[in-house]
Design brief:
Blueprint: E1 5-7, H1 9-39, H2 47-71, E2 73-75, E3 89-94, E4 100-106, E5 117-119, H3 123-128, E6 136-141, E7 144-153
Parallel strand pairs: 1-2, 4-5
Antiparallel strand pairs: 3-4, 3-7, 6-7
Helix pairs in contact: 1-2
Length: 154
Amino acid sequence: MQKTEYLSKEKHAEVTAELHELKTVRRKEIAQALEYARSLGDLSENAEFNKAREDQAVVEDRIAQIENVLANAEIIKVHHSSTVEVGTKVHLLKKGEKKEEIYIIVGSEEVDVLASKISLKSPIGAAVLGKKQGDVVNVKTPKGVIEYTISKIE
């Protein structure tokens, strides 16, 4: 059973464009590099050939990864709900703190800690998923359990 990958419309367009670039441009560049390296002769000690083969493997792995993500993608619909779900912006207040932490719950392909986008599978994401404003959640971290109150859901 394949797992659902949650993507925003923007991220879906981004990975679709990346897939197109890899299949049309990068594959052609690598094929040309392989052809050039073969023209140099002995492949057993040919650094250019080995580099091109490594590049080819990386590109083909990424193509397979993106195709898998897109095959299992569900576009996040932005809607306002009273519970935390994928695509929700959630405001959390850590017990004993005065400053809120704000996170956007996203699928694994969109995680960006600097933009406060955390995975629904992360400790915080998993703890708040399905909860409502005012709920108290306990998040297991390497430093122990941290208690948060959901102060706002957008």
